[in-house]
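Researcher: I'm preparing a figure for a lab meeting and need a structural model of a single chain. I don't have an experimental structure, so a prediction will have to do for now. The sequence is pasted below. Please return the structure as tokens so I can convert it later.
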Amino acid sequence: MFEKLNWEPDRMLLDDLVFRLEHSANGNWDLGDNCFRFYKTKGLIEQYKKYWSLINDFVPKNVFELGVWDGGSAAFWFEHLHPDKHVAIDLQSRENSAYFQRYVISRGLAQRIKIYWGVNQADGQSIKDIVKTEFSGPLDLIIDDASHLYIPTKASFEILFPLLRPKGIYIIEDWAWAHWQGLQIGSGDDELTNLVCELVEATGSSTELIASLIIFQGFIVVERGTIDLKSDTFKISNHIYRHSRSNSSKDY
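Model: Understood. Here is the structure written out token by token.
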């Protein structure tokens, strides 16, 4: 994966698709709106390249994505993964960009890639309704690049993780923002590190819920275990075991 990417200072090219690199955008942009606006860096994609080299036999058919800005990341992942169905949501109340519409129509993808705008990632009922409408089977891959905040990210995780098939993959991007100098998204209570710590505890408690947990600086990867879960009742806290503090003073 990612071998066909051509990186330039202000854009990334994938065949005939142009992705404007928003982290390095400047006033010299010459293509107007004839591009996808892309909020991923080359460094992040290099991390993905390293991870995907470990799971090159993983072929997702049903992909659900949270947070796509103007659709660029949906197109990016679709072009690399070629799933049967890729559905995304985003909080913005807008419509598909003209560039995204041309991309979908020119490739005949209207039945395979779709974005629902104006959907909050913490709106569990709307998310469940979308998944039920769009997919005929369990999800294989979920990518969360939405709010990057603890409470809404955890809410969508607890709704969607049960809808993931065993050995399916749940990715959460930008979990480490609270540790990046010069970047402030929210307060301490908002930090995604809180969720990562809970996922670590759940992984340590049992492999039935989480088969594996892999942490990169730019994202974490949660592999679903085999336990049967219900989307209406699943809570991470119910799968974390801790010894009582009074019995934990032994030196090891």
